Batch of 4 targets.
Target 1
Amino acid sequence: MAIKYILASSSPRRHELFTFITKDFEVISPDCDEVLPDGVDPYSVPEMLAVRKALSVAKSHPDEIVVGCDTVVILDGVIFGKPKDESVAYDMLGTLSGRTHTVVSGVCICYKGKTLSFSQETDVEFYPLSDSEIKSYIAEFKPFDKAGSYGVQDGGALFIKGIKGDYYNVMGLPIAKLKREIDKLVMLAGG
């Protein structure tokens, strides 16, 4: 019997990327608390949230592979999440301008009562950005659903001087490592 897959994410980019792993999957938006205790290491946050997301869906789908994910941008130990408006997006992009930040994706896979989670980090260096570049990008692409206020797969690609690590991680799903971890978990769970 074929294994069924569930992607516990409402991100259209993750849906698109998950098709590299399988075309046959269901999408269920997770319903879980995303409030974190004070003092959590920023680099641990995405994996903690990914675990919560995956477990919230897996409890009602124990015999299916459930994948949860969360992605953040980190600079100087500060998490840059999704901007709530143009002003916040402008400030984020201005802060990232001319600097190297880290994109961290946390991923959790649940299957047959077993759970496996990991984090993937990718460093992204931005060119210095002008005010007009930032304003034009925000006006055209409205990056309010993107961590750090940019998408590597849209006009945000014009900001990037270099990427060290997994490109797809910057889009929000480290698919190569995810595929290998799914295979590992399926073997651990006995098929």
Target 2
Amino acid sequence: MNIPPVSIAAVKQALIEQYQHPRLRHRASMLWGTRGVGKSSIVRQVAAHFDAPLVDLRLTTIEPVDIRGAIYADDIRQQTVWFPPEFLPTPDQPEGLLFLDELTAADQRLQISAYSLILDRRVGNYRLPDGWQVIAAGNAAFHGAVSHDMGTALADRMFHFNVQSVIDAFLDYALANALAPEVMAYLKVRPDKLDDTQSQLANDYLIGASPRGWEDVSNVLQSGLSESGKRLFVQGRIGAANAAEFFGVLREIRAGTDVIALLAAPMGPETAALLPKTLDGLYGMIYALLAAATDAARMTRALEIVDQLPDTDTREPLPIRESQTLAMELIFQRALERGLEGAVLESPVYQRYAEQRAADDQATG
């Protein structure tokens, strides 16, 4: 595919800007990407951004007549006419988003009707209102999904985006949606495990890891299932090899950090004694602190713990300074989301960090 890969965040911003431009809004956009990357999610987010109506059509679940509508004999005109389906936008809905999901996997007869909406913004006697933007999504054959070729005539009528799984974008999503800290810590250390579609295809595996799969793993970890039950469900979602590695790291994360004890410990030697000694444990602690920092007091205490990271007694070198920067920024981001930024800004620890950042920026600027 001769389209450069872009992050899901970049595609979302591009679609927002396209919707704001009346002329560009008339040209359809096509989102290419592997399963679980979040194509449908960003379309919903764009609609929510503008508080605009969204018509979401999953083309693999409908028939060609569902788009074209029903044919009716008009005795007066002595003609057959088409009644458009009720789910297509009507003139009293002047603006919105029409999302044609799984376009490349749809039956080719259905694609003809969908192509009419994309190429001509009409199908039969139905015409799409001028203020509506068409967005389509699908998989290419190399993504390992059912896919029919898209002709050059259609491809030439669309903007195309090659949506890629980017670990930073996924971690931002994970934080915003309170995914399990263990999943975030694992993927921070092993970003290559976010999406192993190519390995899955090469080995002819039925299932593998994907962004959607890790969200399901998070739900399993946060459930009340037994440990054996959790292992079975995780294996059945991302595959045996991925699950074995994940649970191996999970044991290390959980053994390396007791966040509740850290939050309760006084500053100084008692805190230092509880700090993690491995990379997995370090990131496990950071994301667990984020999950636990639900009020001003815990946020202030989390900053103090992060400030003591250089006191870690470990034989292996750890990225302490990088981890401190990551933790400080994430804690401040979480504080903004919860309306607790005052607690962070008033913290002597954060003030020292901000002053050091400013000095570093001035030195390098």
Target 3
Amino acid sequence: MKRKLICLLLCVLMLVPSALAVDLYVDGKKLETDTEPTIVSGRTLVPVRAIFESLGAEVFWDAATWTVTATKGDTTITMSIGNTTAYVNGAKKNLDVPAQLINSRTMVPARFVSEALDANVRWEGETETVYIATKPEYDGYTIVPDIIYSTSAEENGLGDTFMFADGVITKTQTVNGYPTHILKTEKGQVGIINLLNDPAFYTLSNGDTVRVCFLYMGYSEVLNMAAGAYAETGNLNIPITYPGVSAPSTTPTTPTTPTTPTTPTITPEPEPQQKTVYITPTGKRYHYLKSCGGKNAYAVTIDAAKARGLTPCKKCAS
């Protein structure tokens, strides 16, 4: 939902109308179509030319047989309007929902065509969003491409793309009234701007090694570097997903320095708003015990958790 809020905020700032309907993202960038993606019998259908071309395929339409053929490299996909049998390189494939005409547009199942072209597909029911990845991705965010460090959004065409980058927070400053972290990565720097005044942004400090997810906005003349709107802090312990396989992240983590045991000091328990709790990047609840939150849990203050709309875990935070 946070991604939609960021997009909506930017639309308001630019006075561009927006509606929170079924959304489709390819490699972190929202796919704009003249007919909105539609859910039919539990399957998301999308305009045929838009989805295939966004995945790098050529599309051919045979009006006589109402058949669409798409090719990419050595892969050829064929499907016909109303037919639940499709073909991938001549092999029959059964479709739960066939290609069909909606508002005079040919619509095809997003998951089938994407996976046939070796892309990963993920459905987020809470926000009714489809995420398709042909490049390394994390939780629907695409890995930062090198090109953003040397070109503007107008040149590279990647404006309004949701990305993630691993790096170190080196500086915090204010840009046009908004708190901003400078994230130094292996390839360059990115200014991460807190447009939504997200409390999680303030848990990051200079020197932290982090994975930051953001909406790429282009080149900042003030910062003299690429800039993006802060979306969330990712988990460095979760591997980056590649289409078809999973590979471990190569980003180094901060080593733990052994400490000398000391005599424990009994101190009064802090007030509830000062407690540390544990949350996950996509969870809806906060936990008092990290083990209850799972391997993806990370620490924040209880105020920050509540500010994000999270509720107590019934098992450990009651």
Target 4
Amino acid sequence: MGRIFFVPALVLCLVSCMKQDDFNGGDFDGHSVKGFFIINEGTYASGNASLSWHDTGTGETLDNVFYGANGIPLGDTAQSMTISGDTGWIVVNNSKVIFAVDMADMRLKGSITGFTSPRNMMVLSDTKAYVTEMYDNRIVIVNPRTYEIAGYIETGCSTEQMILHDGYVYVNFWSSGNMILKIDPVSDTVVDKMEVGLQPCGMALDTNNRLWVLSDGSAGWTDNPAGHETPSLCMIDLETFTIEKKYVFDGYESVNYSAPSDLHIDGTGTILYWMDGGVWKMGITAASLPDKPLIHSTGDQSFYSMTIDPENGDIFVGDAIDYSQNGKVYRYSSDGTLLEKFGAGICPGDFCWY
């Protein structure tokens, strides 16, 4: 997220008449195309996850690009996607698989299996990548070249997101956790850790190399063995690995089904965004949290995911609607003005810029 690469156009054949060799990835000039993939989770346990492509230059959206290229379904609960070189890695959580696709045409190059509940993948080299897990207190080490699991890093808690900075990988505990881990990817060892708010659900790195961590306080999980606390936002100095600032979200009860989530930062590294009913915006030098959202969601919207255009600051918000029908994506300007909306697959849960 946050880097722009060149992408060839993707052409989707009609699913009703699609065969393996019917798909023909376009050969357009890469300089004329940019956009992002929409990772549609689908309905849990239904095996109807999908991948969409949205061209931010033309406004065109192509659905089911993975199925269109390969003739097989993506699986159950697509979680995330990352791109390294000419390969895209699509993490499918409940199917416990990661697919490798050729970015030229979305054709399948290979797959990695043997996971418990994969969430996110970070490619560190041609022969090493990390995968976080939801129901496994280990980070999985995989070899992207051979598509095999190569080892594990014991963490003691489920892990979620990863950020690479100055030779170290920073990972947030998630379910019932309250820690940020600092991992040396050369030795595959945890070299330090620090306590933040309960259930850190999002991280972002700003222009000053400060790590921002959003914690939801375990909102909505009434039986969390770790208990509950007020959500918070921490700014961490990575040189000293200490909390430099901590913002606490007032007005939350101990068990509240609404909480801040989905933390992002714009392309300049100076403006933070998160969701909580609507979309909230805050500069990294702000003395306090904002008192009202930038974008208010309406009663018929279910804001579920978000991404920020790293070039112009446009805000894209995924609307899951009722989590069973095809969703929508809304595009807003950085000042919160609605610019357009377009369709997506069932439960648009994440985005991957390319």
